[in-house]
Write a structure and sequence with these properties.
Layout: E1 2-6, H1 11-22, E2 26-31, H2 34-43, E3 48-52, H3 58-67, E4 73-76, H4 91-119, E5 123-127, H5 140-162, E6 168-172, E7 177-178, H6 181-185, E8 194-195, H7 196-207, E9 213-214, H8 218-229, H9 232-246
The protein binds NADP nicotinamide-adenine-dinucleotide phosphate (NAP).
The site of NADP nicotinamide-adenine-dinucleotide phosphate has 30 residues, from helix 1 and helix 6.
Length: 248
């Protein structure tokens, strides 16, 4: 069995990869940093191939698929956030983030899903965020990108169910997790983050139970429920205040 994990050089992706290796999966690990990928590979118990590419480039996503078509599990995890008021953040930075957080997930999901449907087996886990349920002032583009990943995955789930496919899709929606995410986004969490090895082992367990939406952590589950019932304008005020506290 083979699993391909994007963003596997650190954080949640690295721990998802290690968990899958413990279960006996051979791995294809993708990220830009070859050295870090090789370090993760050395920690794995199974056979690993590392692919150092920038997934924000569409052609790289297509090349990756061409080279490694045959996977049983695809995990679209690579992603990052940008903090700041929408009128002040850089357009090029945001477009690059959209290319990674949305476009790469879209392209890889489509290509691998079609292949899996042909075989009538396989599974895809897309990493969104609890941000998918919030409007996200001060991180508007990041939150919107995760909303896209959530909607795309849940819609595909229903399409697969209607055709009685054995292909499974899940979407991971974590709250704060202790990884490099904060440094990349230039923020610090205003609440305590979960450990990424806990998030990864919980996720892998739920994914293999065919859970559609995976929300690790009790407080995160509560906040997702809160987001669904709170009036939008109140949610916006609360969310803005929480986000403001993240500023370094
Ligand atoms: N940490 C949190 O609180 C949190 C909460 C909810 C959701 N998430 C989501 O979880 C996912 C993983 O993030 P993380 O928290 O584990 O952060 P992380 O430690 O910064 O990991 C991000 C991973 O994505 C890779 N990556 C970044 N840009 C890339 C590119 N252009 N092409 C290929 N790979 C790229 C990074 O590797 P290279 O730098 O080597 O390319 C790294 O392996 C993200 O989608 C994030 O939005 C995180």
């Amino acid at each position: 069995m083979i699993a391909l994990v994007t963003g596997a050089s650190s954080g949640i992706g690295k721990d998802l990869a290690l968990n899958l290796s413990d279960l006996g999966y051979e791995l294809i690990l993708v990220a830009r940093n070859k050295k870090k990928l090789n370090e993760v590979a050395n920690e794995c118990k199974t056979k690993v191939k590392t692919v150092a590419i920038d997934l924000s480039k569409e052609e790289n996503c297509k090349e990756l698929f061409k080279k490694y078509k045959n996977v049983d599990v695809l995990i679209n995890n690579a992603g990052y956030g940008i903090f700041g008021e929408f009128n002040k953040t850089g357009l090029d930075d945001e477009l690059n983030m959209i290319d990674l957080n949305i476009k790469a997930v879209h392209v890889l999901t489509k290509l691998y899903l079609n292949e899996m449907i042909k075989k009538d087996s396989g599974r895809i886990l897309n990493v969104a965020s609890s941000a998918a349920f919030l409007p996200g002032p001060l991180m508007s583009t990041y939150y919107s990108s995760k909303s896209y990943v959530f909607k795309l995955t849940t819609a595909i789930y229903e399409e697969l169910r209607r055709i009685k496919s054995n292909v499974k899709v899940s979407v991971l929606c974590p709250g704060p997790v202790n990884t490099n995410f904060n440094d990349t986004a230039g923020v610090s969490f205003s609440v305590k983050g979960l450990d990424s090895d806990y998030v990864a082992s919980y996720t892998i367990k739920k994914m293999f139970k065919d859970k559609l939406v995976i929300v690790p952590g009790f407080m995160n589950k509560l906040s997702v429920i809160g987001c669904k019932i709170a009036p939008l304008k109140i949610l916006l005020k609360i969310d803005y205040n929480i986000q403001r506290k993240k500023e370094k």
